UniProtKB/TrEMBL annotation, chain A:
Taxonomic superkingdom: Archaea
Residues of the 4Fe-4S Mo/W bis-MGD-type domain: 3-59
Coiled coil: none
Protein name: Formate dehydrogenase subunit alpha
From TrEMBL, chain B:
Keywords on record: Iron, Iron-sulfur, Metal-binding, Oxidoreductase
Pfam family, one: FrhB_FdhB_N
Entry's transmembrane regions: none
PROSITE patterns reported in the protein's UniProt record: 4FE4S_FER_1, 4FE4S_FER_2
Domain of life per record: Archaea
Taxonomic lineage from the root: Archaea, Methanobacteriati, Methanobacteriota, Stenosarchaea group, Methanomicrobia
Cofactor(s) for this UniProt protein: FAD
Protein's name according to its UniProt entry: 4Fe-4S dicluster domain-containing protein
4Fe-4S ferredoxin-type domain ranges (all copies): 282-310, 332-362
């Protein structure tokens, strides 16, 4: 008779909830609450309740696969490593690109970063943060000098006004949604602006639907109202902010008067005024956003505008305030922190900074040096280069990512991958992307390894091993070390444990410098920055001063620009995309979780009742949605809970993949695609001859 | 010869157990004896995890490891009943010793009524429980109300109506009533609980009524079954524990403590249920309106018996994937557990949206108990 609990951190969203995995006879068989977690107190969302269900799926990858004559053949690890080493040695550094993963640990991201820059010597490394919060990293860094969520999750419950724009918190970060509820029970006003009447919107004191892509106009309008009424925090603005006069001149333009913004956004002028008053006069006001703000060609502008509003009202460095950029994936914060980005090493130390470059080169000790100190390509640029300049990039190493379902304009993404001469994919399932690979390496899931991950509130928490990986599958850091060794750099990858990798990373990373496994094994763990071993960590950033060298916050005057593609006569509707509570991104884990898959077995397109009537479409009817990039057949969900003229599709489902339709137009700074707005038409499917 | 109904002061004979255990370490010694003597094959109990706010269930087969479970953790709000059903009763042969609070006991009774656990194979060592405090709230309470760093606390107890902490450099007690009036203190289901002495376990153990020189050094044990009598008898004969008849004055005091706790429970019932009655449908609609359908209330309920696949698919009234779900999602659960909710509070404590689910189902149960004949027979406990 045995029963073992292994306390660990959830592998899904960026909230950082903990639970126990129940282990019997060496296998994970269930989850149980971990009530001591300060983040979630034992409570979990549906994905957490059933987070064990995919772990021992029968189709987990258990052996390395090598593609021969178009078919995968099982291989030994040595055969796979030999082939990888032989191929990668034959390419020049600039011909190789790596995609790291927001799904794996900090240690593993650090190691792929080291493999890319030290072994392959390429400057091209990125990961899917490009597709979710690249604009946050760029926008908040420009505003505050640090590109992360400013406050902590627990702090949201202390707020007196919670303004949610571009986040369906109840479905995407449910245990942060709880903090909104707690704030509300403590007397806070809750404002939700969203094109859809989401479960989050249903809890709001003030809800308004608006057209996707009009965020800057809305935020400028709120700031204009606040200034006209004298609700701005004059002390904050005068002592801590730069650029106030320029911002003021912009937001006070007639274009941003409530009556004019009503026409652009679809939010009634009265609601805009109410929101401005609540935000402007609250003792503290927290702004929560997510992909609704970031996934636009104006993503960085949107992010800077949220920062403008929070600085204007003195809600930076204040309890219950902040720009709370809710990071999507379990470890997307960590993957960025680990330097799995084309412009930085760990802790956002710039690759073009020669002193930083030398520090890493010296510490790693590669006898033949590391990549040149130049910025590399973003994932979206890599894919464009593949299609637009064939032959420039030849080989790619992808760990735990599935761009064949997650990238915009999937036809383009597939075409790009087909240009590669050699593709290695390291994953736990044979995903849509892995099917394109030349070598597939069977990896481990969260339940099978030690390591750390960093949640949206910069809290660094442990994963703990509950069972062995299936078959011959290996833990990811071990695979990366062995690839490094196969390439001839065994001395640079001598690791016997994840902890050794963490310690090496922390020694090179000021914001993680004071962390070690002993400290992180406390239930409270630590928030970065944590510069020394006696430092308690930093739940709230920018108290007293911002992170720019001069300590000031920077306000940016921003003009509203429409999305890259707007409705016209041929494609008359705005399509926006997102996730649902039951599934995770490309569904490789959740669609293999029986309970979650039962609950929501396929995708849909949400159509406003009036639009459906005009189109002659009934609820649940299979319809054809088309954009300039492609066509998908998808069941209609006819509802009053979406704004007229706007349609919504979840992107989890390959059989009706929303990203066949989405637009690969990029934000000029962050290179994030505009997943949240493109133009589509929807038609009845008529009998074909 | 020990017989059902006897009451003893009991303490461990082993010096080490005496030191590690609380109040004489009787439970630790009895579990150890049960395991050593083969009366049970394994023991399910709770041990301290990261700190005293972290209670971890553990299954022990080596008697030497029993000492890890010594002592009480009032911030452990676990329910063990469903663990027995889901993970430990499946080989249908092993005998299991379990240390149980009132809610664990009631949960097992309800499971046994439904043939989901076999009571003949369980040896239940009951512990009196005046209620428990959720760990994160306990830390906040200690920081805010006691003004002590919760990490510095090395012992907590609930005694004589006070929550008492010991920490480096001192100890402090605050009246539970005062804490609870400000939203701290015990879980709300615990406040309403009327099952403080688990007399349906095999032994009911606690410190209430231990007076004189034995105060703090012995456990009051009430023998509640023949199985319990056998264990105590054999353990005493084997020299694992020492016993003496409980002091009659102590028995009287124990009765008074229990009575005071029940009065307090009734006071909270009145308060909670009357407030709910004032706007019953409105409250239920408002609170369940933020449900995210995580199934925690079902998965963690000791008396929920879902038809596995049916529950998670479409029904006529509850559409799958819909959040918040149709109110029938909750209504059918309340109906399902209407005559068996034991008010263990797990549904409420584990609800990610803080819906007071235990309040609703406990109200249904208690009102039902006063109105209808229970279909599965009258429960041997009162809650």
């Amino acid at each position: 008779m045995d029963l073992k609990y292994v306390q660990t951190t959830c592998p899904y969203c960026g909230t950082g909830c903990s639970f126990n995995l129940v282990v019997k006879d060496g296998k994970v068989v269930g989850t149980q609450p971990y009530k001591r977690s300060p983040v979630n107190e034992g409570k979990v969302c549906p994905k957490g309740t059933y987070a064990h269900e995919f772990v021992n799926s029968p189709d987990r990858l258990t052996k390395p696969l090598i593609k021969k004559d178009g078919k995968f053949v099982e291989a030994t690890w040595d055969e796979a490593y030999d082939l990888i080493a032989q191929k990668f040695k034959s390419y020049k550094p600039d011909e190789i690109a790596c995609l790291s993963s927001a799904r794996v640990s900090n240690e593993e991201n650090y190691l792929l970063m080291k493999l890319a820059r030290g072994v392959f010597k390429t400057r091209h490394i990125d990961h899917c943060a490009r597709l979710c919060h690249a604009s946050t990293v760029a926008g908040l860094a420009a505003s505050f000098g640090s590109g992360a969520m400013t406050n902590s999750i627990l702090d949201i419950a202390e707020s007196k006004c919670v303004f949610v724009i571009g986040s369906n918190t109840f479905e995407q970060h449910p245990l942060i949604g709880r903090k909104i509820v707690q704030a509300k029970l403590n007397g806070a006003k809750v404002i939700v602006f969203d094109p859809r009447y989401t479960p989050t919107a249903k809890q709001a004191d003030l809800y308004a639907s608006f057209y996707s892509g009009t965020d800057v106009a809305v935020l400028n309008c709120l700031m204009g109202e606040i200034i006209r009424n004298g609700w701005e925090d004059k002390e904050w603005v005068s002592k801590r902010a730069k650029g106030y006069e320029e911002l003021k001149a912009t937001v006070l333009k007639d274009d941003y008067l409530p009556e004019n913004v009503e026409k652009i956004s679809g939010i009634a002028a009265a609601d805009l005024k109410t929101a401005a008053e609540w935000i402007g006069t609250a003792e503290s006001s927290a702004l929560l956003y997510s992909m609704g703000i970031t996934q636009h060609t104006v993503g960085v502008d949107n992010v800077k505008s949220t920062a403008n509003l929070q600085m204007l009202t003195g809600n930076i460095g204040r309890r219950g305030g902040g720009v709370n950029a809710l990071r999507g994936q379990n470890n997307v914060q960590g993957a960025c922190d680990m330097g799995a980005l084309p412009v930085v090493f760990t802790g956002y130390q710039k690759v073009i900074d020669e002193a930083v470059h030398k520090k890493f080169a010296d510490a790693w000790g590669f006898p033949d040096g590391i990549c040149e100190p130049k910025n590399g390509y973003e994932v979206t640029v890599m894919f464009n280069v593949l299609t637009d300049n064939p032959g420039e990039l030849k080989a790619m190493y992808i760990m735990g990512e599935n761009p064949m379902l997650s990238d915009p304009d999937l036809t383009h993404a597939e075409h790009a991958l087909e240009q590669l001469e050699f593709l290695v994919v390291q994953d736990i399932f044979l995903t849509e992307t892995a099917q394109h690979a030349d070598v597939v390496l069977p990896a481990s899931c969260y339940a099978e390894k030690e390591g750390t991950q960093t949640s949206t509130e910069r809290r660094v928490q442990m994963w703990r091993k509950a069972q062995d990986p299936p078959g011959e599958a290996k833990v990811d850091w071990q695979i990366l070390s062995e690839v490094g060794a196969a390439m001839g750099y065994a001395d640079q990858f001598p690791y016997q444990s994840a902890e050794e990798i963490f310690n090496e990373m922390a020694s090179l990373t000021p914001s993680y410098h004071g962390m070690n496994y002993e400290r992180l094994n406390r239930p409270e763990a630590l928030h970065w920055p944590c510069p020394s071993e006696d430092h308690p960590g930093t739940p709230i950033l920018h108290i007293g001063k911002c992170s720019h060298p001069d300590g000031m916050g920077v306000m940016h005057p921003i003009e509203w620009k429409p999305p890259a593609e707007v409705p016209d006569a041929e494609y008359p509707y705005i399509l926006t995309t997102g996730r649902c509570l039951w599934h995770w991104h490309t569904g490789s884990m959740t669609r293999r979780s029986e309970t979650l898959d039962n609950e929501v077995p396929t995708g849909w397109i949400e159509i406003n009742t009036e639009d459906a009537q005009a189109l002659g479409i009934a609820d649940k009817e299979m319809v054809r949605a088309t954009s300039r990039r492609g066509t998908v057949d998808v069941p209609a969900k006819v509802t009053d809970e979406i704004k007229k003229g706007v349609m919504f599709m979840p992107f989890h489902f390959k059989e009706c993949a929303a990203n066949v339709l989405t637009n690969n137009a990029l934000d000029p700074i962050a290179k994030i695609p505009e997943f949240k707005a493109c133009a589509v038409k929807v038609e009845k499917i008529t009998e074909e001859a | 010869m020990v017989t059902k109904g006897d009451m003893f002061y009991t303490w461990a004979a082993d010096a080490d157990v005496l030191k590690k255990g609380e109040c004489g370490g009787a439970i630790t010694a009895l579990q150890q004896y049960a395991l050593k003597s083969g009366m049970v094959d394994a023991v399910l109990a709770v041990k301290k995890g990261a700190d005293l706010y972290d209670a971890v269930p553990t299954v022990i087969t080596d008697p030497a490891e029993i000492a890890e479970t010594a002592g009480s953790l009032h911030c452990g709000t676990l329910l063990l009943s469903k663990l027995v059903k889901d993970y430990l009763d499946n080989n249908k042969t092993a005998k299991l010793g379990v240390t149980v609070k009132g809610c664990d006991t009631m949960g097992l009774i309800e499971l046994a009524k439904r043939n989901a656990v076999d009571m003949d194979r369980l040896l239940l060592l009951g512990v009196n429980c005046g209620g428990s405090v959720s760990p994160v709230l306990a830390r906040k309470m200690i920081a805010d109300k006691f003004e002590v760093d919760p990490d510095l606390v090395h012992k907590e107890e609930i005694d004589k109506g006070q929550f008492i902490i010991e920490y480096e450099g001192g100890h402090k007690g605050i009246k539970i009533d005062d804490l609870e009036d400000e939203g701290y203190g015990r879980r709300s289901n615990c406040r309403r609980c009327l099952y403080k002495v688990p007399r349906q376990a095999d032994l009911a153990c606690g410190n209430w009524g231990v007076i004189g020189d034995k105060a703090g050094n012995a456990t009051f044990v009430e023998v509640c079954s023949d199985k319990g009598a056998n264990l105590l008898d054999a353990a005493a004969k084997a020299g694992a524990v020492a016993t003496e008849a409980a002091n009659p004055k102590g028995i009287e005091i124990r009765g008074k403590v229990e009575g005071a706790m029940l009065n307090l429970g009734n006071k909270w019932r009145r308060k909670d249920f009357e407030a709910l009655a004032s706007d019953l449908w409105g409250t239920i609609a408002r609170e369940t309106g933020r449900c995210i359908k995580c199934y925690s209330c079902i998965e963690n309920c000791p008396v929920c018996f879902p038809v596995a696949d049916e529950l998670k698919g479409n029904s006529r009234m509850v559409t799958s994937g819909e959040v918040p779900p149709n109110p029938m999602f909750h209504l059918r659960r309340f109906a399902h557990i209407s005559d068996s909710c034991i008010n263990c509070g797990q549904c409420e404590e584990l609800c990610p949206m803080d819906i007071p689910l235990a309040l609703f189902s406990h109200a249904v149960r208690t009102e039902g108990d006063t109105t209808f004949e229970p279909k599965l027979g009258k429960a041997p406990y009162t809650n």
